[in-house]
Amino acid sequence: MLKTFRIGGVHPPENKLSAGQAIKTAELPKQAVIMLSQHIGAPAQAVVAKGDKVKVGTLLAQAGGFVSANIHSSVSGTVAKIDTAVDVAGFQRPAIYIDVEGDEWEESIDRNETLVKECNLDSKAIVERIKEAGIVGLGGATFPAHVKLTPPPGATATILIINAVECEPYLTADHQLMLEKGAEILVGTELLRKAINVERAVIGIENNKPDAIAHMKELAAAYPTIEICPLKVKYPQGGEKQLIDAVIRRQVPSGGLPIATGAVVQNVGTAFAVYEAVQKNKPLFERIVTVTGKSLAHPSNLKVRVGTPLSQLIDACGGLPEDTEKVISGGPMMGKAVVSTDTPTTKGCSGVLIIRDLESRRKEMTACIRCAKCIAACPMGLAPNTLMNATEHKDWERVEKEHVMDCIECGSCSFTCPAHRPLLDYVRMGKARVGAIIRSRNAK
Amino acid sequence: MNLVWIATLSLGCIGAISAVILYFVAQKFKVYEDPRNEEVVKVLPGANCGGCGYPGCGGFAAACVKATSLEGMLCPVGGAPVMAKIAGILGMEVAEAAPKVAVVRCNGTCANRKKVNTYNGASNCAIEAALYSGETGCSFGCLGNGDCERACQFGAIHVNPETGLPEVDEELCTGCGACVKACPKMIIELRNKGPKSRRMFVCCVNKDKGAVARKACTAACIGCGKCAKECPFEAITVENNLAYIDFQKCKLCRKCEAVCPTGAIHSVNFPPRKPAEPKPEAPAQPAAPQSGTAAAPTAQA
Lengths: 444, 301
Description:
The structure holds two protein chains of two kinds. By secondary structure, chain A is an alpha/beta fold. A six-stranded mixed sheet of chain A has the order 1-14-13-17-15-16, with helices on both faces. A four-stranded antiparallel sheet of chain A has the order 2-8-7-4, with no helix packed on it. In chain A, strands 11-10-9-12 form a four-stranded parallel sheet, with helices on both faces. Chain A has helices at residues 123-132, 145-148, 173-195, 210-220, 240-248, 268-279, 310-316, 357-360, 373-377, 384-392, 396-401, 412-416, 423-443, and strands spanning 24-25, 31-35, 45-46, 53-54, 59-62, 71-72, 77-86, 92-100, 159-164, 200-206, 226-231, 263-267, 286-292, 300-305, 324-329, 336-337, 351-356. Chain A has three domains: 26-109 and 283-357, Ubiquitin-like (UB roll) (Roll), CATH 3.10.20.600; 123-279, 3-Layer(aba) Sandwich (Rossmann fold), CATH 3.40.50.11540; 373-443, no CATH class. Chain B is an alpha+beta fold. Chain B has two domains: 36-90, 3-methyladenine DNA Glycosylase II, Chain A, domain 3; 100-271, Alpha-Beta Plaits. Chain B has helices spanning 2-28, 35-43, 56-66, 79-90, 125-131, 147-151, 178-182, 210-216, 226-230, 255-259, 289-300, and strands at 100-104, 157-160, 165-168, 188-192, 199-202, 236-239, 242-245, 265-268. In chain B, the strands form four sheets. In chain B, strands 1-4 form a two-stranded antiparallel ribbon. Residues 279-301 of chain B have low confidence and may be disordered. Chain A binds chain B through residues 84, 88-92, 336-337, 339-340, 361-362, 422, 425-426, 428-429, 432, and chain B through 116-117, 120-122, 124, 126-127, 130-134, 137, 139, 208-209, 212.
C-alpha cells in the first residue's frame, strides 16, 4: 500500500489542466517591479539607488536579518525608482522598479546548460552559497532556505525530504520541472543532503504523477542515497508536517519545529534552485509558474523572471477571459486572491489561477449540523467547529487550549463543510489573536 | 425510641462542634472589605463595559476606594454625575474629566472611494483585515462589516448602508472605547467631546503617499502639511503622510479645515460659516482664538 499521512485529509478535484505542457520562457517585462519582501522574515534592504545600471543577477537588496533573504535583479537595465508597489493582498510594500534594457547577465553566472555533477564544497560553503543566492522555499511559504539548513543547537538532522508532492489542485509547475530537469534536481538534492550532513534523502511524489515517478526513479538509480517515495494522493500532503508523517512516520510535536523529527524538508523547486546557485552561480531570480484555469485558452507552465506583472503572464496564455471573477496567486486551496493583476510575480508565486464567475462565489452558509466532517478532515487533528465557535465568542483561552496554533491553514475544513461555514476564516482569526496574546505574554 | 435519641444527640454534637470550628476559622481568615465598596458599586451603572480600564464596575469601585484622589478616574458611561456621587461617598473632590466620544476617522464613502474588488467572505472586519487590504484601493480605510456596531453595548454606533461607514450617535456614545478595540484598522479614536460638542479631526488614517492615497479615495489626507502650517497653535502634526490634530491643543479655530485641499479635516456641530467675512475682523482672531472663532459664528446664528 502507498504511504500517506495518517490523520485527516481531503481529496479535491485535481484539475491539472496544464499537465504535460512543456515549460515555456515568458517574455521579459518592459518594467520589472521587484518587491523587497518576497520571503518570510525581515524585508531586504536595498543596496542600489535610482539611476544605477544593473545586470541580470546583480544584488539589489541585502537580507535584513538572519531570517531574511537577498534579492537579485531578474532583468538588466536602469533602476527607475525605489518606491512602493501593491502586493498580492493589496497593501503598499517597498519595491524596486527597473526599466528593462536588453538582457545582459552578470559574467559570473554560468549560462551553459550542461549538467555539472561534481562539487568540492563542504557543507558550510554550500549553505553560504545558498544564502548568497537568496534562495527561499519555492513551495509557497518562502521560508529562507539557509535558515532551514542551519539546524538550531541541540537538533540534528537525520534525513532530507524533498517535497515533490504538489498536492494543490491545478498546479503542475513542480511536475513539469521534474520531467525536464530531473537530473539537475537530483544533483541539487545531493547538495542539500551534503549541506545538512545526512545519509539519506527521500523525494516524495504523489501517485497522480506516474510519469514523473518513473522518470525520477530511473535517474535516481545512479544515486544510492536518494530514494523516490510514491505517495497516495491526498491533500494537504505537501504540508511539511504531513509529508514528514507520510514518509518517515513521525509526527512533529505540537508547537515544535519539524527538525524535532530529524527531518529537513525542501521543495523540489528549491532543490533545482540550489543546483543552479551552487553549480552555476545563478541567484534565484526566476521560477516556474503554472498559469491555469478552466476558462483560460492555453493553460501552461512558464519560466518567469521575478518582477513580471501577473497580467503579462495571463496575456501569454491567451488573455484574461471575460467571465473571470477571481485571480488567485498560488493554488485554489491555499493561494490568495489578488487585488490587481498588475501585482508583480514574486519568488513564492507557484501559480496563477483564473476562476470563472460561477465557481468563485461562496455558497450560502447554514447552521452547523454537527456532522464532524471538519474534524475528520483536519490533518492536524484539531476540531475546527469548536475553534470557530470559541472564536465567535471571543473565548481566547478556549481557542488556545484547542491548539489553534497548530493549524496549518490548509482549508480542508472549509472545503469539506456541507453547511459551507467559513471555518478557516474564523480559525485564522483566532490563530492571529491567540498568537498576539502569546507574544505579549512571552514579552512580559 | 432510643434510636431517635441517639441520632438526635450525635447529630447535635457534630453540629455544635462544627459550629465552633467554623466560628474560629472565620475569625482567623476574615477579609476586611471596605463597606464603601458596595456603596460605590450601587452608584455605578453596572454596564461592566470596561471603558474605565478596570475589569468591570466592581474593579473600578475597588480602585476608587483605594485611590488617594479621583484624578484620572472616570466612568465613561455614568460621566460627571456618577463621579460626583462617588466623590461624595468617598469624601473626595471631583476631578474634572473631559467627556470623550468615539470618532470614526474615515470618510471613504461609496462615492469618495471606488470599489476595486468584491469581498464575499465572512462578514467580519477582523477576518477581512487579516486576509487582505479591502474592497477599495485604500488599505487603511473602513471595511464596513460592522465589528464596531457589534462591540457597542449602548447601540451608539451603526453602519450606514448608504455610505458603508459607521456613524456614532453622540447622545448614546459613552466613550467606553469598546469600538476602538474592536476596529482592526484602528480607525476609531476616542476624542474630547469638546465645548458644545464641537470638535475638529482629520477624517482619514491613510499613511500612503499623497498620490496613492488620492487615487484610492478623493477624501483622503494626502499629507501636504498645509493644515500644520496654517495652525496657529501647533496642534497639527504630519507624520507618515498623515495629519493628526491633537485635541488637547486644538482651539477649534477651523482654519485648517478651510485650507485642506481634499476636505479630509472635518468639523462637527459648528453652525454654518459666515458667507463672506469682512476683512478687518480677521487680524483680531489669532489673539483671542477661542472666543473669536467659536463665538463669531454663534453670534451670526
